Each structure stands twice: as structure tokens, then as C-alpha cells.
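Hello, quick one for you while I still have it in my head. A protein chain has come my way and I'm curious about its shape. I'm sending you its amino acid sequence along with the C-alpha cells. I'd be grateful if you could look everything over and explain what you see. Here's the protein in full, and shout if anything looks odd to you:
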Amino acid sequence: MILKQFNELKEFLSKPQQVVIIGHKNPDGDAVGSTLGLKHYLDKKGHKAQVLMPNEYPDFLHWIPGSETVYRFDRQNNQCVKSLKKSTIVFLLDFNALHRVGQDMQNTLNKYEHDFALIDHHQQPDDFEYMYSDTAMSSTCQMVYNFIEMMGDVDMIDKNIATSLYTGIMTDTGSFRFRSTTSKTHRIIADLIDKGAENDKIHSNVNDSNTYSRLLLLGQALTNLEILPEYKTAFITLSEEEKDKYNYEKGDTEGIVNYALSLKGIVFGIIFIEDEEQGIIKISFRSKGQFSVNQFARNYFNGGGHDNASGGRSELNMDDTLAKFKSLLPKYKSELLTSYES
């Protein structure tokens, strides 16, 4: 764990501040939940906090309290820039380096005149003035809870804060099934329920909001599933044409990679998604046990994240990306075969 200048940050926050809170590009439940949870807390403390996101996030997260106040850098650039100019500090949540917000927003943040405060659980973070980094944590939302606790303000957690943080912990732990879920995670979840988080409604809002076209897209993805049993590996592909056929919207592919990993005997699951707009193949990696997809993604696919859940990208076409991926597997055969014992 890295805890840098916490006491100084606590002292800084003892007086009202103009705060900007930023999540990563293509925000997920943990990014949205942690930024809004922190916003609600800081507002309650007497600060004025504004959440900025680089771009849009899925519809199934728009119900989170405070979502309607979020500014998007790609669509509301003027509002975002004005917020940054007025702010006295910027919190960076759920990402470890400025490039994770996208080049346009990074260029703006590179000119920022005040300090950054990082709260994040991804590996190999960049250095910032204030830092709370812990790769052992289940989620950034769990870290925001811990941050509030370290500030001595757990009693200030209300329904809005609890709902936001519960959502991010739930989504980033795969509904509490991943190895990063600890007894402390469950104790925090229990406290969030006690403080107003309605767990049944949160699960329903996130998981029971599928459109008909999204289910058809999932069916297409499962049809494309390929298994490589000699490497305990399974992968899914989705082309731009297939996405268009089923009216793809942001968030529609969320969680599909887990179907590959759910197969009996599989320890390495991947989804390759063609992104014509960016000219890349977007990749999500998942693993069970000791095989580090973080290192695999960093080594070969310009990515990274966590040991058992990471992302990456390829600037090759789909066929060449798959050929490259398959060519790497023999090198890791022994690691894959011994990664996880049920």
C-alpha cells in the first residue's frame, strides 16, 4: 500500500475547497460509484465537488444518485474546463495514470496548476502529490469507504454515499465472487446496507436492465466462443458488423468475458472486440488463480490492470490479433495448467 501525505491532505480538506473528481475513460461501475460516492461525502463536508468523466458510461449506471450532475469531457468540454479552472484540487479515482482519461483530457490535466490526489487499486501507479494506492483492495469504492473512515467520518455515510459505494464494490468484485473479496469487504458491505444501500434494488438496477438487442448480442458472442482446452483458455470475438447488427450501445459488452471464464476447466478467458472508431481491437482478460493477466496485457497488448482482471488493445486487425494471441500461449502453457486448482 502507498499512503502519501494523508495527514497533509486531511489538513487541506479541513477548510472548504472547490474539488473536481475524475474517473477513467469508458467508466465502469467502480469508477462511477467511487466518484459519486466521494462527491456526496465531500459535499456533505462543506466542499463543492464536481465529477468529470472523459466520456459516456452505460445506461445501467445512470440511476446512481448524483449521476445527473456529472459532466462529460467529450460533450461538455466548456463546463469541464471551467470546473477545473475553479478547482483547488483534483481527485483521480479508479485509474493509475493520466493517460487513462484519453489524450484530449490528459492534455488539459497536464496544464493543471494545483495538486492531484489519487485513490486507486491498480498496479504500478504514477506518482502524485497525494496518494492512496492499494492493489490488494477489491475496488476503488472500498478504498473510498476506507478513506472516509481514515478521515474519521464513517458516521457521515448516508444512503446516497452507501448506494454509490455498494454499486462499485459489487460490480468490481463480480457480485463478491472474485478473490479480492475479503472478510473486510463483506463487513463494509454490511455497514453500507445498514446505512441505506438497498442491495436488492442495486443488483436489479445493474443486472436486470438488459435490452432485447443486448441479449441477442450476447447470443452472438457465445456463438463465437472458442475453446483451447490444451491451454485451459477460452475466448470470444465480436466484430463491428456484429455489434451494428444488434444495435450495440456502450456497456452492452460489459461482463461478457466472464462467460468464457465460467466454463469448467478454463482459467484464462478473453474477449476481443473490434472498435472501428478507434481503429483497434479492445481486449478484456480474466483469469483464475495465479496466472497474471495484468503482466500478460502489459507485455503484449498495451494494457494492464489487476492480476486476475485486465484490459488491453491491439492495433492489428482481428485475424492478426488472434494469431498473435494464440502464438503466445505455448510460452505460458505450464503456468496456465497449474494456475488454479479447484
User: Anything to note?
Assistant: The first strand starts at residue 2 and ends at 4. The mean pLDDT is 95. The two ends are 29 Å apart (CA to CA).
